[in-house]
Structure formats: structure tokens, C-alpha cells
Amino acid sequence: MDPVAAASSSGALPEHFSEIQPFKHYLGPYFHYEPDMQSLTSDDFDKDFDTYIHYDGTPVLFTEKVTEGKVIAALDSYGKVWLVGRYDGDSKLTYVHYYANKVVGLDLGKGNRDEARKYVEAAHKFKSEHGDNALYLRYGRPFAERKRSKLFGYNVPKWKDIEKLSTPAYDLEKARFPHLRNTLDQYNYLKGYDSKNRLLGFKLDKNGNVLLEYLGQYHPRV
Fold first, then answer.
1. CA-to-CA distance for 218 and 222, rounded, in angstroms?
2. 183 three-state secondary structure
3. Which of 50, 82, 111 is the endpoint of a domain?
4. Least confident of 17-26, 122-131, 179-188
5. Does residue 66 lie within any of the structural domains?
6. In sequence order, which residues have a C-beta less than 8 Å from that of residue 170 and are 6 or more positions away?
7. pLDDT at 220
8. Long-range CB contacts (< 8 A, 24+ apart) of 100-107?
9. Contact assessment for residue 125 and residue 53, using Cβ atoms and an 8 Å cutoff
10. Which of 108, 126, 133, 152 is the most exposed place for a label (fewest CB within 10 A)?
11. Is residue 123 part of a domain?
């Protein structure tokens, strides 16, 4: 039996899926995808994809940092993935967009590589300024569309109201990311200080998009 097909029936991935593969592996005949593998649960999403940059709802995976199994899991659960890596001897990063196809396994996606590159570069710049947790709140796994009241719909919290609220502001470096994400998801807003003591505000619009605002210039901690 094909090893990927075997994995789909047994729920376990082949041993070589635990290995990090060179970028060229994903461009050649040795990489294929069997579209019958079981989707990840929501808990698996939290564990495996919360702390990856997502572009247009799709995880961006740097092949030098992830296993082949991670790539397969992304295709299985999202139906698409961005892979980023370098050809042998090339200093420039190359972006490849794949879609899962139920008939042939994989299709080359039509995502805009230049726009994806700009987005990821902006995300890395944001990370250098504000740290990992702020990065994954703003650029990580998308949030669901917000629930709306039958009478009033969904009102996006106003920045001036968020800044005045007595709810505590988190230390974004020290707080656990799952708690930060859950708080933003539950209350639709979150305040936190980055490593340079800047107070950042995060809020969700009706579609679950993350909006960011600097609530104070080197705002003093409470």
C-alpha cells in the first residue's frame, strides 16, 4: 500500500514525514499528496498552526523549519499551503503555492507570489519590533467571523473605549500565547505591552480580521 494511503487509514504518518526535507523535494516527483487523510481537530489547529504566519487564510511554511508531515497536515486541513525555501546555492527565497486536488493530489496555486512575499516580510518586520506573540495575534491563524446580535449586529469596539477600559493590559513577551489568542477571540479586543513598553491594541472586525492600533506612545504600565 502507498505509505500516504496507509497513513490515511491508520491515522499515523510514515516515518519520513517526521523529517525536514530540502526545498527542492517539494518541487519534484518525490513529493505527493493523498487527499484522503483525516482533517485535524480544532485542538490540533491550536497546537500546530496558531504560531505560523498566514497569508490570505493560508499557512506559510518555511521548508527549512518544518517537517514534511507538517506540510501534509496543512494541505489536509486547509486544502492549500504556501511553501517558502531556497534552491541549492540560491540566497533568494522562492514562494510556491499549492492546492489540494481530490483527483490528482496537488495543483499549483495561483496566489500572487510578490504579494505573499511583501506580506511575510512585513510580518517579520512587525515581529522584530513587537515580538512573537504580537506577530501571531496579528498575522497568525485567522479568527472566525464574529457572532452578530439579531437586533444590533456586531459592533467593532472603538479604540478610545478600549484604551479607557479597566481590563488589564498583558505583557506580550511573558504571557502564554494560547491565553492571549483565546482572550482576543472571546472579548474581541486585547491590550498588551511589547518589549519597548508600547501599549498595543488588537481588535476583531465582523469578519474576524485583526486590527491594530498604538494606544499610547511608550504608555506607562499600570
1. 12
2. helix
3. 111
4. 17-26
5. yes
6. 180, 183, 190, 191, 192, 193
7. 52
8. 100/33, 100/35, 100/75, 100/76, 101/35, 102/35, 105/32, 105/33, 105/34, 105/35, 106/32, 106/33, 106/75
9. no
10. 152
11. no
